Give the backbone structure.
Amino acid sequence: MLKNPIPQVTNQLQYRAIGIINGKFTPHDSEQLNRGFLIDNKGEKIETVVLGKALSLLKRHIDLKKSYYWIVYPKNKNTQNLHLQVAGIWDPYQLNDFPNDSKKNNFSKLLEELDLKDNYFSVRGELVYVNTKKREIVIKICSALRIKNLKNKNFKLAIKGELPLKLLNSFVSLDIQRDGNALELIRYEVIEKDLSKKTRI
């Protein structure tokens, strides 16, 4: 069975921000592999940190001269300042126990079978800001980990695109495409209107 790099949501109000990018990872320092740049097929560089689980995969299986599909969490301060956290590597043959007897070594075709493509991101959260002049929106994403004193429990993601002002405080599901260091809205779905009313009860 082909493992989906961006799994189906398990809960209608599940917050998340996750994507897949094809590129080469170049560490800042060969002694410290967890920080560096992800360089995509167009030569665009994105500041990147490799998280613990993915770091052991990187050390054991990854040839830094080759391109891979990276499963990433996006962070940014504005629409031109993308930062990635690598959560995993999607390689159906080498890392995901997918039978290698088929001739489908074309990963982009395999992604299409899963309704995904390179530079796709799934973002689900609360719409907290709309700037119609600049065509920018901000989505608040809450961590599922309800641990006290956890840093960065919630974070905000700035996205290029337009949503109606009346949807402020609604829970939305967004399909996003990365363009350079920006995240751009392709389509959206309103999952629940006005979360602020629910939290006051």
Observations:
- The first helix runs from residue 52 to 61.
- The chain has two domains: 16-118, 122-200.
- The mean pLDDT is 88.
- The chain is about 10% helix and 45% strand.
